[in-house]
Amino acid sequence: MSNLFSHCEFLISAYKTSQLPDDDGMEIAFAGRSNSGKSTTINALTNHRGLAKVSKTPGRTQLFNCFEFKPNKRLVDLPGYGYAKVPIKMKKHWEKEIDSYLMNRESLIGVVIIMDIRHPMKSFDEQMLTWAHESGLHSHVLLNKADKLNNNDTKKSLMKVTKAIAKYSSSTTCQVFSALRKTGTAELSQVISPWFDKQS
Ligand SMILES: Nc1nc2c(ncn2[C@@H]2O[C@H](COP(=O)(O)OP(=O)(O)O)[C@@H](O)[C@H]2O)c(=O)[nH]1
Ligand SMILES: [Mg+2]
After folding, report:
1. Residue 200: is its pLDDT beyond 50?
2. In UniProt terms, what function does this protein have (predicted)?
Protein backbone atom coordinates (compact mmCIF):
# COMPACT_ATOMS: atom_id res chain seq x y z
CA MET A 1 0.00 0.00 0.00
CA SER A 2 1.44 3.35 -0.92
CA ASN A 3 1.34 6.46 1.24
CA LEU A 4 3.14 9.80 1.58
CA PHE A 5 6.18 7.98 2.92
CA SER A 6 6.52 5.26 0.28
CA HIS A 7 9.40 6.86 -1.58
CA CYS A 8 11.71 7.41 1.30
CA GLU A 9 15.48 7.46 1.00
CA PHE A 10 18.27 7.26 3.51
CA LEU A 11 19.99 10.64 3.93
CA ILE A 12 22.59 10.47 6.68
CA SER A 13 23.54 8.96 10.03
CA ALA A 14 24.65 11.55 12.56
CA TYR A 15 26.62 10.87 15.71
CA LYS A 16 26.17 14.45 16.84
CA THR A 17 23.40 16.97 16.21
CA SER A 18 25.94 19.16 14.41
CA GLN A 19 26.15 16.46 11.70
CA LEU A 20 22.40 16.50 10.99
CA PRO A 21 21.05 17.78 7.64
CA ASP A 22 20.47 21.55 7.41
CA ASP A 23 17.71 22.60 9.75
CA ASP A 24 15.28 23.49 6.94
CA GLY A 25 11.90 22.16 5.95
CA MET A 26 10.04 19.78 8.24
CA GLU A 27 10.82 16.58 10.04
CA ILE A 28 9.30 14.24 12.57
CA ALA A 29 11.19 12.11 15.05
CA PHE A 30 10.57 8.52 16.09
CA ALA A 31 11.38 8.28 19.78
CA GLY A 32 11.22 5.41 22.19
CA ARG A 33 13.14 3.12 24.44
CA SER A 34 15.84 1.03 22.93
CA ASN A 35 14.31 -2.07 21.31
CA SER A 36 10.76 -0.65 21.27
CA GLY A 37 10.73 -0.97 17.48
CA LYS A 38 11.56 2.50 16.11
CA SER A 39 13.53 1.24 13.13
CA THR A 40 11.06 -1.55 12.33
CA THR A 41 8.26 1.05 12.42
CA ILE A 42 10.03 3.28 9.88
CA ASN A 43 10.50 0.27 7.63
CA ALA A 44 6.81 -0.67 7.95
CA LEU A 45 5.62 2.90 7.31
CA THR A 46 7.82 3.39 4.26
CA ASN A 47 7.20 -0.19 3.10
CA HIS A 48 10.92 -0.50 2.71
CA ARG A 49 12.42 -3.43 4.54
CA GLY A 50 16.02 -2.71 5.49
CA LEU A 51 15.75 1.09 5.14
CA ALA A 52 16.31 1.62 8.86
CA LYS A 53 18.64 -0.95 10.36
CA VAL A 54 16.92 -3.19 12.88
CA SER A 55 19.32 -3.89 15.69
CA LYS A 56 20.20 -7.43 16.61
CA THR A 57 22.00 -6.12 19.68
CA PRO A 58 19.73 -3.80 21.67
CA GLY A 59 21.15 -0.39 22.40
CA ARG A 60 23.46 -0.33 19.42
CA THR A 61 21.49 1.92 17.06
CA GLN A 62 23.27 4.92 18.55
CA LEU A 63 22.91 7.38 15.71
CA PHE A 64 20.37 9.86 14.44
CA ASN A 65 19.32 8.20 11.19
CA CYS A 66 17.67 10.60 8.76
CA PHE A 67 15.42 9.68 5.84
CA GLU A 68 13.87 11.96 3.24
CA PHE A 69 10.48 11.20 1.67
CA LYS A 70 9.92 14.52 -0.17
CA PRO A 71 12.34 17.38 -0.74
CA ASN A 72 13.17 18.79 2.69
CA LYS A 73 10.69 16.51 4.47
CA ARG A 74 12.29 13.96 6.74
CA LEU A 75 11.78 11.13 9.19
CA VAL A 76 14.38 10.87 11.95
CA ASP A 77 15.09 7.63 13.80
CA LEU A 78 16.36 8.81 17.19
CA PRO A 79 18.91 6.88 19.21
CA GLY A 80 17.14 4.62 21.70
CA TYR A 81 17.19 5.44 25.35
CA GLY A 82 16.93 3.41 28.50
CA TYR A 83 19.09 0.47 27.64
CA ALA A 84 20.85 -0.62 30.79
CA LYS A 85 23.89 -2.23 29.21
CA VAL A 86 25.13 0.91 27.46
CA PRO A 87 28.19 2.33 29.25
CA ILE A 88 27.42 5.39 31.36
CA LYS A 89 29.64 7.66 29.29
CA MET A 90 27.74 6.74 26.13
CA LYS A 91 24.44 7.27 27.93
CA LYS A 92 25.52 10.77 28.93
CA HIS A 93 26.56 11.54 25.36
CA TRP A 94 23.16 10.45 24.04
CA GLU A 95 21.15 12.22 26.69
CA LYS A 96 22.99 15.42 25.83
CA GLU A 97 22.58 14.97 22.06
CA ILE A 98 18.90 14.03 22.25
CA ASP A 99 18.19 16.96 24.57
CA SER A 100 20.01 19.33 22.27
CA TYR A 101 18.12 17.96 19.26
CA LEU A 102 14.74 18.31 20.93
CA MET A 103 15.46 21.79 22.27
CA ASN A 104 17.03 23.34 19.19
CA ARG A 105 15.75 21.66 16.07
CA GLU A 106 13.62 24.24 14.24
CA SER A 107 12.38 21.85 11.55
CA LEU A 108 11.03 19.36 14.11
CA ILE A 109 7.23 19.45 13.94
CA GLY A 110 6.18 16.28 15.74
CA VAL A 111 7.15 13.09 17.51
CA VAL A 112 5.94 9.54 17.21
CA ILE A 113 6.55 7.90 20.59
CA ILE A 114 6.91 4.15 20.33
CA MET A 115 6.22 2.01 23.37
CA ASP A 116 6.15 -1.74 23.86
CA ILE A 117 2.44 -2.41 24.44
CA ARG A 118 3.40 -4.79 27.25
CA HIS A 119 5.45 -2.13 29.10
CA PRO A 120 4.03 1.29 28.20
CA MET A 121 4.52 4.68 29.87
CA LYS A 122 8.01 4.32 31.26
CA SER A 123 9.58 7.44 32.69
CA PHE A 124 11.31 8.58 29.48
CA ASP A 125 8.03 8.09 27.58
CA GLU A 126 6.36 10.38 30.11
CA GLN A 127 9.14 12.92 29.74
CA MET A 128 8.71 12.89 25.97
CA LEU A 129 4.96 13.42 26.27
CA THR A 130 5.43 16.32 28.67
CA TRP A 131 8.13 17.84 26.55
CA ALA A 132 6.15 17.50 23.28
CA HIS A 133 3.15 19.12 24.90
CA GLU A 134 5.15 21.99 26.37
CA SER A 135 6.89 22.58 23.04
CA GLY A 136 3.64 22.61 21.08
CA LEU A 137 4.68 19.69 18.89
CA HIS A 138 2.36 17.12 17.38
CA SER A 139 2.58 13.80 19.17
CA HIS A 140 1.28 10.32 18.53
CA VAL A 141 1.84 7.17 20.58
CA LEU A 142 2.26 3.74 19.04
CA LEU A 143 1.61 0.75 21.27
CA ASN A 144 3.91 -1.55 19.35
CA LYS A 145 4.36 -5.33 19.40
CA ALA A 146 0.60 -5.83 19.69
CA ASP A 147 1.16 -9.23 18.04
CA LYS A 148 2.47 -10.30 21.47
CA LEU A 149 -0.89 -9.78 23.20
CA ASN A 150 -4.38 -11.21 22.77
CA ASN A 151 -7.29 -8.94 21.81
CA ASN A 152 -8.50 -8.47 25.33
CA ASP A 153 -5.14 -7.43 26.76
CA THR A 154 -4.56 -5.21 23.74
CA LYS A 155 -7.81 -3.35 24.41
CA LYS A 156 -7.01 -3.04 28.10
CA SER A 157 -3.59 -1.55 27.38
CA LEU A 158 -5.01 0.88 24.81
CA MET A 159 -7.64 2.07 27.30
CA LYS A 160 -5.11 2.45 30.09
CA VAL A 161 -2.61 4.40 27.99
CA THR A 162 -5.29 6.57 26.32
CA LYS A 163 -6.42 7.59 29.80
CA ALA A 164 -2.88 8.21 30.99
CA ILE A 165 -1.84 10.37 28.03
CA ALA A 166 -4.93 12.54 28.39
CA LYS A 167 -3.22 13.90 31.51
CA TYR A 168 -0.36 15.19 29.41
CA SER A 169 -2.16 16.63 26.44
CA SER A 170 -5.60 16.56 24.92
CA SER A 171 -4.16 16.51 21.41
CA THR A 172 -1.88 13.49 21.77
CA THR A 173 -3.30 10.47 19.98
CA CYS A 174 -2.63 6.79 20.57
CA GLN A 175 -3.07 3.58 18.59
CA VAL A 176 -2.32 -0.12 18.64
CA PHE A 177 0.46 -1.15 16.29
CA SER A 178 2.58 -4.07 15.14
CA ALA A 179 5.61 -3.04 13.12
CA LEU A 180 6.39 -6.70 12.56
CA ARG A 181 2.99 -7.49 11.04
CA LYS A 182 2.53 -3.95 9.68
CA THR A 183 -0.85 -3.67 11.36
CA GLY A 184 -1.76 -0.05 11.98
CA THR A 185 0.45 1.49 9.29
CA ALA A 186 -2.51 3.01 7.40
CA GLU A 187 -3.76 4.62 10.61
CA LEU A 188 -0.26 5.88 11.46
CA SER A 189 0.09 7.41 8.01
CA GLN A 190 -3.34 9.04 8.30
CA VAL A 191 -2.42 10.61 11.62
CA ILE A 192 1.02 11.96 10.74
CA SER A 193 0.60 12.94 7.06
CA PRO A 194 -1.43 16.08 7.86
CA TRP A 195 1.36 17.24 10.20
CA PHE A 196 3.31 18.09 7.06
CA ASP A 197 0.50 20.07 5.42
CA LYS A 198 1.24 23.42 6.97
CA GLN A 199 4.43 25.17 6.01
CA SER A 200 5.97 26.26 9.27
N1 LIG B 1 7.03 -9.21 17.98
C2 LIG B 1 7.39 -8.02 17.51
N3 LIG B 1 8.70 -7.70 17.45
C4 LIG B 1 9.02 -6.47 16.98
C5 LIG B 1 8.04 -5.54 16.53
N6 LIG B 1 8.68 -4.42 16.16
C7 LIG B 1 10.00 -4.64 16.36
N8 LIG B 1 10.22 -5.87 16.84
C9 LIG B 1 11.51 -6.51 17.18
O10 LIG B 1 12.11 -5.79 18.26
C11 LIG B 1 13.52 -5.72 18.09
C12 LIG B 1 13.97 -4.27 18.10
O13 LIG B 1 13.47 -3.60 16.96
P14 LIG B 1 14.13 -2.24 16.41
O15 LIG B 1 13.25 -1.76 15.32
O16 LIG B 1 15.57 -2.47 16.10
O17 LIG B 1 13.99 -1.34 17.72
P18 LIG B 1 14.65 0.08 18.02
O19 LIG B 1 15.83 -0.19 18.88
O20 LIG B 1 13.60 0.83 18.76
O21 LIG B 1 14.99 0.71 16.69
C22 LIG B 1 13.84 -6.44 16.77
O23 LIG B 1 14.21 -7.75 17.09
C24 LIG B 1 12.51 -6.38 16.03
O25 LIG B 1 12.37 -7.44 15.11
C26 LIG B 1 6.64 -5.94 16.57
O27 LIG B 1 5.72 -5.23 16.20
N28 LIG B 1 6.41 -7.18 17.07
MG1 LIG C 1 16.75 1.34 15.91
Report:
1. no
2. Necessary for normal cell division and for the maintenance of normal septation.
For the chain, what percent of residues have pLDDT higher than 70? 92
What's the domain range around 83?
Answer: 9-196
Q: Which atom of ligand 1 is nearest to the CA of 56?
A: 23
Amino acid found at 65: N
Distance (Å, whole) CA 6 – CA 74 = 12
| Ramachandran class of 111: left when φ > 0, alpha when ψ lies in -120 to 50, beta otherwise | beta
The whole-angstrom separation of Cα 39 and Cα 193 is 18
| Residue 194 host element (H or E) | none
Domain count, the chain: 1
User: Within a domain: residue 1?
Assistant: no
Task: Give just the sign of the alpha carbon dihedral 12, 18, 23, 29.
Answer: positive
Ligand 1 centroid – CA 37 distance (Å): 4
Per-residue pLDDT tens over the stretch 29-77? 999 988 899 999 999 999 988 888 876 665 555 789 999 999 999 999 9
Residue with CA closest to ligand 1 atom 11: 35
Asked if the structure places residue 4 within a domain, the reply is no
CA angle 175, 48, 31 (to 5 degrees): 45
Q: What is the pLDDT of residues 79-111, one digit of tens each?
A: 877 665 666 777 777 778 888 898 899 999 999
